[in-house]
Amino acid sequence: MLPCDDGFMKPDKLIDPVTRDLWQVIAATDEVPVGAVETTLLLDAPIALTRDEQGQPVVWLRTVEEAGDEIDADEIVERLPVLVRYGYIWTSLGKPPTDIFPIPEYAEPDRKNMSCGSIGVNVSAPRAVENFLDMGHFPYVHTDILGAEPHTEVKEYDVEVSEERDEVLATRCRFFQPRAALSATEGIEVEYVYRVPHPFCSVLYKSCPEDESRRDVIAIFLQPMTQDRCRAHLLQSMVDSVSTITELRRFQQTIFGQDKPILENQMPRRLPLDPRAETPIRADTSAIAYRRWLSRKGIAYGVIPQAG
Amino acid sequence: MTLSIDDARWHPIASSDDLPFRHVFHGQLLGRELAVWRADDGNVNIWENRCLHRGVRLSIGINEGGELKCQYHGWRYANRSAGCTYIPAHPADAPARRIQNRTYPVREAFGLVWSAPSENAAFPDLPRAEDRAWLPLRPMPVNAAPEDVAAGLAKALDAEGPHGLTVRAGDAVYFVQPVDSGRSVIRGLVSDPTTDTIPLLREKNRTLAKLRDRLERSAARKPAPAPLQPTYEKVSAELATMPDIAVPHGGTMIVVVKRKWQTARGVTGFELADRSGSHLPTFQPGAHIDVHLPTGLVRQYSITNGPGELLSYVIGVKREEVSKGGSHALADTVREGDLLTISEPRNNFPLRRDATRTLLVAAGIGITPILSMARFLDKSDLPYELHYFVRDADTAAFRDRLDVLRGKVTVHDALARDAIRQTIGEALGRWSFAQHVYICGPGSMLEMVRALAAGLDWPDEAVHFEYFKNDRVIDDSSSFEVELARSAMTLQVPAGKTILEVMREAGVTVLSSCEQGACGTCMTTVIEGEVDHQDVYLNESEKRANKAIMTCVSRAKSARLVLDI
Amino acid sequence: MTIKLYDFELSGNCYKLRLLMSILKVPYEVVPVDFYPGREHRADWFLELNPFGQLPVLQDGEETLSDSGAILVYLARKYDRSGRWFPDDPATMAEILRWHAVGDDLTSTVSAARLVLGMFYDFDLEKAQKGAHRIFRIMDEHLWFGEKDGRDWLCRPAHPTTADIACFPYVMLSEEADVSRQDYPALRRWTDRVRRIPGFTVMSGIFPAGPAREAQAAS
Hints:
The complex is a heterotrimer of chains A (308), B (565) and C (219).
Chain A: E1 2-3, H1 17-20, E2 24-28, E3 38-42, E4 45-51, E5 57-61, E6 82-85, E7 88-91, E8 112-121, H2 125-133, H3 138-141, E9 158-162, E10 167-177, E11 188-198, E12 201-207, E13 215-226, E14 229-238, H4 245-263, E15 271-272, H5 285-297, E16 303-304
Parallel strand pairs in A: 15-16
Antiparallel strand pairs in A: 2-7, 3-4, 4-5, 6-7, 8-14, 9-10, 10-11, 11-12, 12-13, 13-14
Chain B: E1 11-15, E2 24-29, E3 32-38, E4 44-48, E5 62-63, E6 67-69, E7 76-78, E8 84-86, E9 106-109, E10 112-115, E11 134-136, E12 140-142, H1 146-156, E13 166-169, E14 172-180, E15 183-191, H2 197-221, E16 231-232, H3 237-240, E17 252-264, E18 267-274, E19 288-292, E20 298-302, E21 312-318, H4 326-333, E22 339-343, E23 357-363, H5 367-379, E24 384-390, H6 399-403, E25 408-413, H7 417-428, E26 435-440, H8 443-455, E27 463-465, E28 480-484, E29 489-493, H9 499-505, E30 523-528, E31 531-532, H10 540-545, E32 548-550, E33 555-556, E34 560-563
Parallel strand pairs in B: 23-24, 23-26, 24-25, 26-27, 28-34
Antiparallel strand pairs in B: 1-10, 2-3, 3-4, 5-6, 6-7, 7-8, 9-10, 11-15, 12-15, 13-14, 14-15, 17-18, 17-22, 18-21, 19-20, 19-22, 28-29, 30-32, 30-34, 31-33
Helix pairs in contact in B: 1-2, 7-8
Chain C: E1 3-7, H1 12-23, E2 28-32, H2 44-49, E3 57-60, E4 63-66, H3 68-79, H4 90-119, H5 125-148, H6 162-172, H7 185-195, H8 213-218
Parallel strand pairs in C: 1-2
Antiparallel strand pairs in C: 1-3, 3-4
Helix pairs in contact in C: 1-3, 1-6, 4-5, 4-6, 5-7
């Protein structure tokens, strides 16, 4: 039997060591004004962040007394580790590795790189990752944009767990799409590659309508706020000489705004790792690999671990 | 009285009026969320509010009349059984039949919809209930514990009780629906209402709203009770892997012939139902059942039903002039009220619902699976065209069912072969993306359509047909070893002999029927070795799974096979 | 000249105008405004259009209009030849504008709670959610007795009005504000009816309903 309610494990706020030592995304760098203090929640811990006069992020565990605005970043002694990657601020509650996973495309000079907003979702981070990997919902959730009935088939694709890079990789993913990107005008079969290089992050590569030799990159970085609530940070790195940043952001927000009501209607909110909790089909091969990978790594946050 | 998740009693969970045409009601009882919907046939479904695939609430899905469609991936679940009938991500496959949502018991009485955790509890007695008219009041949700609501209700109405969660006051009865430990809905009934009911409803609503406000104020002063903790049942081990390797179980059941009638000259309709009136297992369009005939033979008949029609299966039987005794036995000797053994439905002729155009071609008795397909497409507003070829107009079966379809349905009678060829050719047209054709009829018809389609650039995977007879030439040239695991026996199968024959010679008792790889009676589980499938019973994915063999025709590709006998 | 809508996809107030223009088949052009995260509604160029710094803004020829409820009336009066979306009768007009005000109350409750949970605005979440439930209770009762009286919509005409459009988006988006509609069955049925209005269009967060009986019978 599985608990229906996500409160089942409370007040268990224990964080497994793997999750604790990960780098976790907390904000888009540009959206934290220099001098102002922002507060947020990471792994149930209230944290505060600001940028010092040099623009460098400062992150610390927030205590109740600290009001916010009057804090001078220089006076913060007990700082959490900080990393700035892909336009976002990352921190960790444990001992993180020296760097996070690579997205080499981000450094290409002609790309339009942008954050697309940080959006709160009442669902666990792993559920949001799994939805990001899923193509079967395109016709029903992203109707007339990423898919449309009756073109509903998810063709066979390849999934591997790369030992060397410790990530889940799905390749040869193809789906018929009426309007795959902002610059697309007619229906095409789009090819995707999905990476899951971090338990709460995923990166997708999709054929670029403007340049056949290159691929657009869209990434989702999930900030696990609690076991069953997260904040989705969306990154786009596009080869698109025509659209404005505002237009590109609007496209991505439209897509994520469509996923949100689905995610918030999933029960339980945490991702069940017991293979008998839900009913997978062949189209879910990447989701199955992701769940097993989380199980093997010993991730216990935002999931319902397999008993025994 | 303490509220328990194991409370086995019946409780009202909705008003009948809460379930209008094509709506899905979001309910809850004892902490368990419910998706409640009325099918077009009037049947009320109460299901666990959770799609078995990814846990999405079914209450945000779409009521398609005979099936409920999940909003996330478009999975369809059948009225009554809650069995999955279609998985759009794999449109060419028939889903494993056992993907089935959890359902709860349903009663509709006195204008209310009732449910209970199981059928075992006695349905509550309303004194003189049947000879009165009952008017359901506007339901009143209250954020307070059900037992407190019932007590407060009795006190406010100066009534005796409460009796459990029921309060009787004058001409009215109030039931407190235990939504959760701290949430309730008051569902009231007034008997013998006057003709002008709206002022009465308003007055009662005002009284209940005042009571609600009082109860909520006092509930807010107490600590909130912990919500109930219902659990989700695990899916079967079989479903936890990939459902396309589900091997048919060969289960049979006994049904009663509810109706037998002449649906056309030479075609008899049979309506087969469960003896106790329960619904029958989920089927998909194109599915058939095996009917075990009084003569001991087993014959396959397609189900003609539309979506969610599970109270009976309707099949059509043609009286063949030349027959091994199948159709004669059914058409002549089986009468209404007789019992028959049938198999669970199987589908070797699955219908894709992802076509931009579906062309359905039937000839003669081949209308049976095609009719079911048309009815599914019709209900979902998918585009299709049906051509039904008959020798004479009076041999066209199931006309009443065809006439109510809204798609383009044409019955062609007495066409010469050339005219048939021309009609089909025009209907096919040159192939374009996502067009599919389904043909059911005599072998000569299949060959004609296949040849025409090929000439018009239709790829093989867009042309669908089903064999009820195994017309293939069986290649029995291989020789191999068979180990019977449970019988602890190893046998040599030489060229020219079937596994079945060799087993029988060795004294092993094995059931069989058609002995041409069409009926599934001799199906045996494979433990080891690679099967050389030569039957037409298993579908392609089942064959790929290599988990079952028809011992009457199929052989081994490997040197050795280990069977579970 | 084409109508220009200064628009943010995830805004329920902007969606009210997209919805009515879709139903009335009025062509328009979208000017996307980066409300989040770009906060472009506070940019000088936008404040020139609407000093209140609120979306949506609609430009039609010489007219630059703001406030979704006001623009709904403008669109209905100007482009609805049937006259049914905002009829002439004084009592009906008053009734419709009364529900426009409820639409605004939904903005300050449902929409506020949604902005706290989705975009981390600093509003009083609990107060906003309580306010939303209070409105939903009243709407559910109004609609339940409406059904008993043979009235399908918020106002008295037999046809939907701009009142239904003004209230619909933030009712449908309430789950994003963690305000469940489970206790409001009549309100849920009304959202089915709105979603079956010919010409209905969706926004992110709102799914279409299945076909209605009329469509079934007609086709």
